[in-house]
Structures are given as structure tokens and as C-alpha cells.
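Human: I would love a firmer grasp of how sequence relates to backbone shape in proteins. Could you go through the record with me and say what the backbone is doing? Here is the record:
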Amino acid sequence: MNAALIGATGLIGQLLLQKLIDSDCYENIVLIGRSAPQYQANGKTQVTFIACQLSEIATLTLPVAIDHAFCCLGTTIKQAGSQQAFIAVDKTACLDFISKCQASANFVVTALGANSQAKSFYNRVKGQTQEALSQLLAETQQAASPKRLWLFQPSLLLGKRSESRLLEDAAKNAFRFVSAVFVGPLHQYRPIAAEQVAAAMLSCAIAAQDPESESIQRVMIVSNKEMLAS
């Protein structure tokens, strides 16, 4: 089994990378990004880093055929600099990566509230990305080799980032004082540890290896509530 991961220097991605290595499920893990992530090798899994700009993904040649593709890309409009730059990361690069991998199982982090009709620009782009991914895989899959998609929709992520996000940090601090409010129907909106999201992605990837899993639906949405409970 071979895996590819993009976004390995991010909050979820760096945790997921180590989990993929430690799982011993993959002979090769191909990393794509602008800077190499840090990780602890296990002496069994071959990890290959391909340095490139996100705009260059479509032109890459991958060293091995990919079975599982993991996308943990995510930015903010402030970090990206503009709405168009945000789209280039959270939508275009994601689609280019999944298209390049041609994997049978694809695992992509989007967001709670992702909806192509949302008033919020952020959630609208995330929703558009989900729909575009589903359409892309529907167009490229073959009857003998169906392509499946898992969409992970976390709420506000908890964890230590390498870079500061002021609004996100403020929200995390506020959560410490109002965490008791997230009960009952509001529990689904509760902030979630990046560790839990990474664990859910690995769990789904392991389950996808079961031959009987091929009978499940083509697109699976893994909600924030489900990840909190796992």
C-alpha cells in the first residue's frame, strides 16, 4: 500500500503523518508541499518528500502508484492574502492533488458547515470543494476500481500550530470559559483536538482496506460529532 499526503506541516497533517508511519500500513508515503515536515521514521516505511509550489501539483510525476490520498490543506483569507489566493489553496490545490493521485480511497479535511450555498465565503468554498471532489471522482472512476471519498468536517481545531492565527487563538481562549455551553444539540459544534481528526482519518483509512468496505457508499461525510465520539 502506498499513500500520498499534502498539508503535512499543518496542525492535522503533521499528526496524521506520524500516525500513518507508525501504523505500518504503508510501504511508501509520498509528501507534497513547499517545505518538508518533521517526523520520526520507523525504518520500514519509505517517506519521500516532493518540494513544489501548490500551483505545480498538476505537473508532478509521482514515484509510485497511490492507493490512499490524504489532503490536510487549509488556510485563512488573512494568511492567503485574498479570496482568490484562498481558493487557490483550499479548492484548486486540493482538486489538483486528488486528481494527480488517482487513488482508490481519498481522505480530505473540509470544515463544519461546508455548504456550496453558504453565506460565509469560507464555508461556501469548502462546500464547493466537496462537490467538485465528488464530481471529479465520479468522472474518473472505473466500474472495476471505484474511487471513494471521505470528507472530514471538524469544528474549530485545538492544538499547537507552528504559526499564529489570531482570530483562531482568541476563539480557543474564549472556549475555555464557555465549554460548558456545548452540550445537547450544541455538542456537534464543540471545538475538536487536531489529534482526534488525525485519528479519525487513519481509522477510516484502515477500514477502507477491508474488501467488504467496497460495498459502502462512494462519498462518506465524517462529522465533527462523530470524530468527537471516536
